[in-house]
Amino acid sequence: MLRSVLLVAPAVVMITATAVLADNKSDCQKGLEMIKAELRKKHPAPVMATLRKALSGAETEVIEEDWPECMDYIKTARAALKQ
User: Fold this and answer.
1) Range of the domain at 17
2) What's the pTM value of the predicted model, to 2 decimals?
3) 3-state DSSP helix/strand/coil percent for the chain, to nearest 5?
């Protein structure tokens, strides 16, 4: 009984981790589109600079498939827009 539980537990953790990464990937892609749309609008110069930096960093993380770091750049962009 204990063996079956020990075999199932890692599988559940792996499936859950995969789902979280998939969410981060789609959220990152949506965030990239949001930043691109905001760059087409008029914002103060410091906000535009932050958005450009965030876009560049997020695009790099997409290439590297590092979704959590991509989300950090998206959060930075959103914070700049709230100012």
Assistant:
1) 2-82
2) 0.73
3) 90, 0, 10
